[in-house]
Each structure stands twice: as C-alpha cells, then as structure tokens.
Design a protein that fits this description.
14 strands, globular, alpha/beta, Aspartate Aminotransferase, domain 2, 13 helices, binds pyridoxal-5'-phosphate, Aspartate Aminotransferase, domain 1, seven-stranded mixed sheet, 2 domains
C-alpha cells in the first residue's frame, strides 16, 4: 500500500492523524515500515538516518542483534507473569549497582508512571503534599507532572497552572515551580514552604539546559536541611550521560531516581529506585490501612521481555569506550553546527551535551532556564527539523537530536552536511 494511502487511513482513525504530540506536516509526513541499525525506512521506500531514536530508547539502534536474540528467547518462554521473574530481578540488581541512589527498585512500564510513583512515595514518606519542580522540565503525562511544564509568567513563581485540558485545576496548589538554575528563587520558595514540601523533582539535563555549577548541590542541601525528598528524573540521562547517569556526571546523589528509555532496550519498561526507607512506603506487606502505604502496582510491572531487552542493552553500554564515543560525537556536532551558525550569520546555540543535543535559534549567549529557551525562535527550529527530514535525516522538529552507538562518522557527516545546507538555503533566508 502506498504511503499516501496509509497516511489517509491514519487520518481517519487517529485524531489529528497521529498518536500523540509528535506529528509532521504533509510535506514531511511518513509511515515507518522498519528500522535497521541507524536507519529507518518509510512506506515510499525512502531511507533516513535516525537521530530521533524513538525519542531516545534506541541507543543501540534498531534491531540490535544482542537485543533481538534476548527478546526472541524470552518471548518463547513467556511474556508476562505478574509474579517475580529472573530477568526482572537481574535488571533491578543492575539498577542498584549503577544508580548512585539505588538501594531498592520498582520496575514499571512508562517513564510517566515512574515519576508519578516517585512523587507519591515522597508524599507518603514525608506526610506532606506539595512538590517543587522546575519550569519547563518534562516529567511525563501524569496529572501532577502536567503542572508547570510550560512557561509561567515570571512574576507568578511558584504558582503553576495545568498544562492542558482535563487536568484538575485545584491540583495546581500541590505543584510549585521555580526557574531552573536559579538557586536564589528556589531557596526562597523552599524556605517559605518547607513544612509542606514532600519533594524537589529535577530533570537534570532539563530538555537541553545544562545545570550551572552548584545548582544541584544547593538543591541537595535544601532537601537535607528540611527533610525533603530529592527526585532526579533520569529518564533521558540514565545510562546515557554516564553509566551512573546524571547523578554520576554532575556529581550529586538523589534520594529517588526514575529511569526509562535507555533502560528499556526499546521495549515498554521503566524503573524507579532509591533509598530503602523512602521506597519502603511501597512495601506490599504494609497493612492496607497504613496511611503511608503507596500503591504502585501494574499488570505489566517487571515485564520480562522489557527486562531482557534492557539487560542486553546495558551489557553493550557497559563495554569500554561507550561514553567517550557518545561524547566525542556530541562534541563534534556541537562544535561544527556552532561554527556553521557563525559562518552563515544565523544566530544559534547548540544546547545539551554528549548524546543529547538541540539546535536553538537564538541570539542569547547562554540558555539557563525555560524563559531563555522559550525566547528562541520555535518556527525556525520547526522548519529546520522538517527540512532535515525532507533530506533524509530523521530528527524531531520540536525537540532533541539523539546520538547512538550505531551512528558512524559517516552518519554524522551526513547530519552536518545536511544541517549546513538547510541553514544556508532555508534558515538564513527566513528573516
Ligand atoms: C525527562 C522525561 N521524564 C519523563 C518522561 C515520560 O516518559 P514516558 O514517555 O515513557 O512516559 C519523558 C519522556 O519523554 C522524559 O523525557
């Protein structure tokens, strides 16, 4: 069936023709037939170098032989049991081993669930209801996490609003927000509300914004001073920025951490882990009437197919040279796109670092918080992404570029050559 016919069918059955927020305009829309290593293919027979990586999970590329072997073997042995199973135990052990805060683990299915359960655990453990997050960070789609993910009127900190329809407005009272990297603002809010605060939740590489030196240390100290639970959302950064994730890379240990994407090997699986005393609120042996008892259950929790895929992925990531290679690639992309911007007089910044990057069209010298990121030209970023896709480079027109272990220097050459063409022929002419 032709790609055009498939897109028409998708438009009939999916609202807006897509399955979520990721959607492409007609001139770049496509239906993926399959992926192989660093490449994906569409129903018209076109190939693309994949720099979206399924929004991050495919850090070993598509159909990695070790993942395929592990999954195929597991599928024949049973796909879900509810009960304890060996792959789940082995994966939990690896998380404990790698995560600086990992003492106990709960395996779940989506990143959104892992953050939701982490917030719930912090609330139950402290007996407090409110949490502090940083404006513009993304913590998934639970009703709590969808307060303050979008920009606020700067004067209104720490108040948040629901980020979309259908989210109870009165829940806003329990999610406060501060600007990322602003120690002063966050300290002032915590000092004012500490008796009510259960958690500070941080996306350590907030979208593509790096933490300023001392920011995480200050949040750690505030949590220690006031008995607040520090939650790191490592769903993007876990096992990607370093074996020990953002906690290792930026040198601060959280109380709870959430994992997803990388740890899943491309299958539905996520995890939360952390201090035994906090995690113990999820202990299923607690009496049902214990007010601290947190329900964090799910039919597919401990999903063995996802667990073997995750284990196979971690086996590959653990080999020497992984992070050196990912960061060398990232440094090259950052350096060369920055130089292109200067050469072509297109004001831009490359945010992020290592295998997580984002091209922002802005004249600002540094992106430090959501306000400065929000001021970047979103229309140019969108056109840049769409034009890249039209030229066979699959990137998100909304978000990050992800680098993987199967991207070769040749793939990066193509990314850079195409970026230069798009910047020169399209973006430079937009003003
Ligand atoms: C930092 C972060 N947290 C949470 C999530 C939610 O994970 P999921 O989409 O698996 O629910 C995402 C997803 O993009 C994410 O990037």
């Amino acid at each position: 069936m032709s790609q055009t016919a498939l897109i028409e069918r998708a438009e009939k059955v999916f609202v807006g023709g897509s399955n979520g927020e990721f959607r492409l305009p007609p001139e770049a829309n496509l239906v993926v037939t399959h992926g192989d290593g660093a490449m994906i293919y569409d129903a018209s027979g076109r190939e693309y170098v994949d720099f979206l990586l399924g929004s991050g999970p495919m850090i070993l590329g598509h159909g990695h032989p070790e993942v395929v072997t592990a999954v195929t073997r597991q599928v024949a042995r049973g796909t879900t049991f509810m009960a304890l199973n060996e792959p789940a135990i082995r994966l939990a052990e690896r998380v404990v081993d790698a995560s600086p805060c990992g003492e106990k683990v709960r395996l779940v299915i989506t990143g959104s669930e892992s953050i939701q359960f982490a917030l719930r655990a912090a609330r139950a453990f402290t007996g407090r209801d409110r949490c502090l997050r940083f404006e513009g960070g993304w913590h998934g789609v639970s009703d709590s996490a969808l307060h303050g993910a979008r920009t606020l009127d700067p004067g209104d900190y720490p108040d948040t609003l629901p980020d979309g329809g259908g989210i109870p407005r009165n829940w806003s009272a329990d999610m406060l927000a501060a600007p990322f990297n602003d120690v002063g603002r966050a300290t002032e809010i915590v000092e004012r509300h500490h008796g009510e605060l259960a958690a500070i939740v941080i996306e350590p590489l907030q979208r593509c914004i790096l933490p300023r030196p001392g920011f995480f240390e200050a949040m750690r100290a505030l949590c220690d001073r006031h008995g607040i639970v520090l939650i790191f959302d490592e769903i993007v950064t876990g096992f990607r920025m370093a074996w020990g994730g953002a906690q290792e890379r930026y040198g601060v240990t959280a109380d709870l951490a959430a994992y997803g994407k990388t740890i899943s090997g491309g299958y539905p699986l996520a995890a939360m882990c952390g201090r035994s005393d906090v995690m113990d609120v999820m202990n299923g042996w607690r009496p049902a009437d214990d007010p601290k008892r947190v329900i964090a259950s799910g039919t597919f929790n401990g999903y063995p197919v996802g667990a073997v895929a995750g284990l196979a992925t971690l086996d590959v990531l653990e080999r020497p040279g992984t992070y050196k290679r990912l960061f060398a690639m990232g440094d090259r992309v950052t350096r060369e796109i920055t130089a292109m911007g200067e050469r072509l007089s297109v004001p831009l910044l490359v945010g992020g670092e290592g295998p997580v990057l984002q091209v922002l069209f802005t004249s600002e010298k540094e992106i430090v918080d959501y306000g400065s990121m929000f001021r970047a030209d979103k229309q140019k970023a969108y056109v840049f992404g769409v034009e890249m896709i039209k030229r066979g480079l699959f990137v998100s027109p909304y978000e990050k570029i992800y680098l993987s272990l199967v991207h070769t220097d040749g793939h990066v050459d193509r990314l850079l050559e195409t970026a230069e063409e798009v910047l020169r022929d399209v973006i430079a002419k937009m003003d």
